[in-house]
Specification:
single chain; alpha+beta; Alpha-D-Glucose-1,6-Bisphosphate, Chain A, domain 4; five-stranded antiparallel β-sheet; three-stranded antiparallel β-sheet; 3 helices; globular
């Protein structure tokens, strides 16, 4: 039996520093603006976020704020499954790169493709919002 694949999905945020990208993406109040695949509405319960998502109510726990651009987070799905999501903001010669690793886990090939498409759309939205604020 082979291991389920992972796919790295990224966007370049031209002309914007990793610190600015990280600060925006790490702010829970901004999640509904760019992470439609995860959160339509976000409430806080201490360090845990409770989000109304397309999958139903989920809880989200982010890595503590850090100087390394790490935005890894765990999402507990409505059925209790916990999914680890690696997310990084990296320095890039043209500004920043946001990198999300999608893991297939127990998803079908079609579900995995839909998940990857949703993540790409979220990262594109994040990039577009950040670039729009620069204007």
């Amino acid at each position: 039996m082979s291991a389920a694949p992972s796919r790295h999905i990224s966007v370049i945020v031209d002309g914007i520093s990793p610190t600015i990208v990280y600060d925006y993406a790490a702010d829970p109040d901004n999640l509904p603006r760019w992470a439609a695949g995860l959160a339509a509405d976000v409430r806080r319960d201490g360090d845990v976020l409770i989000a109304d998502s397309p999958m139903g109510e989920v809880t989200v726990s982010f890595a503590p704020r850090n100087a390394f651009g790490i935005l890894d987070h765990q999402v507990q799905l409505p059925d209790g499954t916990v999914v680890d999501n690696p997310l990084r903001v990296l320095a890039h010669p043209d500004g920043s790169e946001v990198l999300f690793t999608v893991r297939q886990r127990d998803l079908t090939a079609d579900e995995f493709e839909r998940d990857c498409t949703a993540v790409q759309a979220d990262l594109d939205r994040l990039r577009d919002l950040l670039i729009a604020t620069r204007r």
